[in-house]
Amino acid sequence: MTDWKTLAAARCPDIPADAVARMVPALEALGASFRPLALQLTPEDEYVEERGA
Amino acid sequence: MTIEEAARKLRAREVSSVELTQESLRKIHAEQPRLNAFITITDEVALEQAQRADDDFGRGIDRGPLQGIPYALKDLFKTAGIRTTGGTKIFDQVPDYDCAVYEKLRAAGAVLTGKTGMHELAYGITSNNPHYGAVRNPHDPARIPGGSSGGSGAAVAAGMVFFAMGSDTGGSIRIPAAYCGCTGLKPTFGRVSRFGTMPLGGSLDHMGPMTKTASEAGLVMDAIASEPLSGFSTPGFSLKSVRIGVPQNFYNERIAPEVAIAFAKALSRAEAAGARLVPLIVPDPGAINVAGRTILLTEVSALMEPYFGRRDDFGADVLSLIDQGRMLAGTDYVNAQRFGRKARRQWAELWRSVDVIFTPTAPILAPFIGQAEVKWNMESEDVRLATTRLVRAINVLGLPALSIPLTPDPLPIGLQIIGPLFQEHLVLAVGAALG
Q1: Directed axis angle between helix B424-434 and helix B257-272, to 10°?
Q2: What is the value of ipTM here, to two decimals?
Q3: How close, in Å, is residue A29 to chain B by CA atoms?
Q4: What are the extents of the domains in chain B?
Q5: Domain B1-435 has CATH 3.90.1300.10
Q6: Contacts of A45 in chain B (CB under 8 A)
Q7: Is residue B202 classed as helix, strand or coil in its secondary structure?
Q8: What global pTM score does this model have?
């Protein structure tokens, strides 16, 4: 699980803490959906369009 | 009156462009207090362009079916000397050059009546703009028109203009078309120049027309496309030769009963007209949506980096999305693009077995202004995510997709017709045959 509050404090200190707290659920939900997709991708998925070129 | 009918009357001298334009401006001004569809109304420019169109007709100069036809541009198409806001305080300006689409429409003799209201930065689906006010749905002003091209959808549906231009990054042409009850085409990625438009997500932004009918959308596309549409012809087009893919996954989940009924009737109508319905499993639109959201969050935040210090100049919803995009990693963006490429290859295989794919455009009727959630039995869904659920993936795929209106009772419902790359002429012909 990402520590969004620490990450925001380090990377985007201008974002107020209450704004960070409000967006954590959305970031968590997106991450939970996106992470498995990213892990499916393999090097074999690259350059397929260039087959036969 | 359609563009085709107006074009015929103009050439028969039954009406002048100045008369059409005066009537259009009268409707715009009359509806503005109720619908707030426009940010800027260009009375003077419109009447000048209309007079020029009439003068050209008088000299025997015919620039095509849009000559003398009143229309509107979403307020992110830059127009030299005419205020262009992008729906935001940040980019509010009077540009000194024209976008490519406006250049093409001027060359076609069309008449600009104004710049339409939109969601701030085109980054949302309500068109409830904190700086320029809420655009309202012509069928029920308590409801949103959809967005982000909400003003364009309202202007066309209320008959203020014959057509309007919109932009579509995650459904922003098709959603207001569905909620307002008009036709909207998101062309193939790259088919219409984006030069001089205010960007949102560079790999997802598309520009396209909003009209009453599919046939009119074809006429506008012929004028604005980088290359003319090949083989677009609605008269005589038969659905008999058409294989319509009907997804058996994703697009039939969490659909409001009114939408499901209207969609089923549209399928029956197509089948009765001779089309072949082909049940289909489509490769994971939900996952493509997730990749699309990751791409968009990151691209917008990258674009807005010079303005991070102006937090007070953004609406709360847009600022939150910009903040979220800043939190994502570069690897997330790259992997989302990799996922998109893989999805495009998978979807390309579908066109071996079908010519077009039908889905509802939006799973719900137009929500009320201020409504945050949609209820589905025991669970709730964010209105923005529900509204974009059936359209966002198509931006990642870059495919042409048309939304046509199915029924205005009780509220408009849209049918989405998706086609293979660069087959706008086919989705338009199918849409016109059903319309």
Answers
A1: 100
A2: 0.96
A3: 10
A4: 1-435
A5: yes
A6: 338, 341-342
A7: coil
A8: 0.97
